[in-house]
Amino acid sequence: MLHQDWMRMALEQAQMAFEQGEVPIGAVVVHNGQPIALAHNEREQKNDPTAHAEVLVIQRAAKVLGSWRLKDATLYVTLEPCPMCAGAIMQSRIKQLVYGAMDLKGGATGSVMNVLDYTLWNHRVDVVAGVLEEECADILKLFFRRLR
Fold first, then answer.
1. Does the pLDDT at position 1 exceed 90?
2. What is the pLDDT of residues 70-97, one digit of tens each?
3. In what order do the strands lie in the sheet with 96-101?
4. Residues annotated in the binding site for Zn(2+), as ranges?
5. Which of 14, 59, 76, 82 would be 6's cystine partner, CB 3.0–4.6 Å?
6. Active site residue: 22, 42, 54, 80, which one?
7. In this structure, is residue 118 part of a structural domain?
């Protein structure tokens, strides 16, 4: 499958978040060509500021693999990760991050800052940005338009 195919799966998760009144961000972890974990934002539902799609999907993937090291995994997420999520990506040893829309207010993997590009880290994450960027941005725009 292509990056776009996996991102569509993440967009399905974002749609679920949208329908639950959560900020519509979805994520998928792929390992050996198979999706092993899916998640979307659950901050409102759980009253948990750390219940971002990326953190939840990393936790679920670690359970599936029986290891916190997700070294051969790719994370697909509809919005550029924040600093907290970028840290979780680094700590989980994810091999590749693929995201859709840039977050020009809080993105930490290329736009506002780049947590993953710090030269002293002992792990490198390959980052691919802008996959299905328009579709990923559109669901967020619609959500915030309706919220206002």
1. no
2. 999 999 999 999 999 999 999 999 999 9
3. 34-40, 26-31, 73-79, 96-101, 126-129
4. 52, 82, 85
5. 76
6. 54
7. yes
Q: Is 54 a catalytic residue?
A: yes
Within a domain: residue 96?
yes
Rounded-to-integer distance, Cα 111 and Cα 102, Å: 7
Binding residues are: 52, 82, 85
Q: Give, as one character, the DSSP assignment of residue 96.
A: E
What phi and psi values does residue 73 have, to the nearest 5 degrees?
-100, 155
* 47 class by beta-carbon count within 10 Å (0-12 exposed, 13-18 middle, 19+ buried): exposed
Instruction: State the residue range of the domain holding 128.
Output: 3-141
The answer, yes or no, to whether residue 111 has pLDDT greater than 90, is yes
CATH number, domain at 13? 3.40.140.10
In a domain, 148, yes or no: no
Within-domain flag for 146: no
Distance CA 91, CA 68 (A): 8
